[in-house]
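Researcher: Re-running this chain for the archive, since the previous output was lost when a drive failed. Same request as before.
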Amino acid sequence: MKLPLGAATTLRAAVAVPAALLAGSILAAPALGQTPRAGLPAVLHIGQIDRQDVRTQAGCEPDTLVEPDVAVSPFNPNIQVAVAHDCRFADAGAVDISYAWTHDGGAHWHHAPLPKLTKAVGGAWDRASDPVVAFGPDGTVYISALAISLGCPSGVTVSRSTNGGRTFSRPVLVHKSTKCTSLDDKDWLVVDTQPTSPFYGRVYVFWTAFLSGSSGQITGVPQVVRWSGDHGRHWSATHRVTPKTASTQNSQPMIRPDGTLTDVYMSFGGGVGGGPNAIVREHGPGPATQPSGVTLVARTSRDGGATWSAAARVVANVGGGPADIRCCLPSSTADPVTGRLYTVWLGNGPGSRDPVRLSTSTDGRHWSAPVQVTPDRSATIQHVNVDVTAHGGKVFVSYGTRNTAVASGNLVQQQVSSSTNGGKTFAPAMSLGPASNLRFAAVAGAKFPGDYIGSSATAKRLTLVWCVSSRPANPVRVYHQVLFAAVLRP
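Model: Regenerated structure tokens:
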């Protein structure tokens, strides 16, 4: 599917899974509108929705999108917005953030660069990273992103759309670190859309703060949060979710119907020590590396993020995905109807086989024993990235699957597993779209489909986004990685 940059994409047919892609280890892709088995989602649209929008800069990997997220409007499921890095740099960030939107439920998508963020699009920053998208209770669309300078300053920004994602305003600076002893990393955005919440409409942005001493030694890597009560125009002071000296990464905040916040994050434990050196990060001292053997921890706030409870362990010894791929951060979500919380991750323990696992909670303090989402078929089957979304007791977990014994392990097939009983059991997986060939993927220390993927569910629509790499049309090119979406009827 070759499209001019900035063009609208028309998705009219499912893309078949190559025959015997993974030696019979996964299902064939269902036809459009066909429910493969009773109770499973029906695929409505599937295909490419975005590709590079910005001009290639020296050092960025041409024709690469990575790390997508997506949101479906809870008021009009035909309106959906997705985001991704645009022209990735191997050492950190991208030339800009690209966003895609549909107003007809995924039949047609349009895409454009996020304006006024980086210098490439008239903004102030050298690079951008880690985009996240969410809808507010009035239909406003928010995109958060890291803002990166080639020197020390870094920041967290939020851009706003009032027309369903067609256009976005100039970004507002949520936070700026002006000193080399503090660097902002791995933001996440969530909006309180619960009418019964005392914080209804509040926009929260969480991020990881890398703190260091004057000689460059890391002194702490806490999770922090700010919020806005006026559609992102003004922001609160910074509040720490974790102690200042903690070794943490990857906030995944969730909101229950009464406005209670629970944040699940990765804890490296043991004080600062060597912990943060294993944290996936966009910039700061040291290289980005795979997280492995960490603990997932939850903290809860009942006063809108001002104060936080003691840490509650979700699960220990979480794995970091395949060793030869940079990927695979854990994911968490709250069911907006039932209020139940869900967290998913890959594997348990360094070097272990990595089935997708899920844990649930009703209060953020007590978490269920892990449920295995994917079957553990053989030592050659691995999974790449994982995301969870839920609505009305239905739970959907998306991930990529590869067989290391086929095509040198370069082929990754996107799949989704569904539960209709609140995550107690999962039906067999559905395969979605074409296989991704890692030979042509972005590279950031290793093959890089992104540290995360995206999914969003409402009563009428389930949308999943992930990056697909394939052989470029121009044989001189090294990379070709675009954004795909599947829109399903739950």
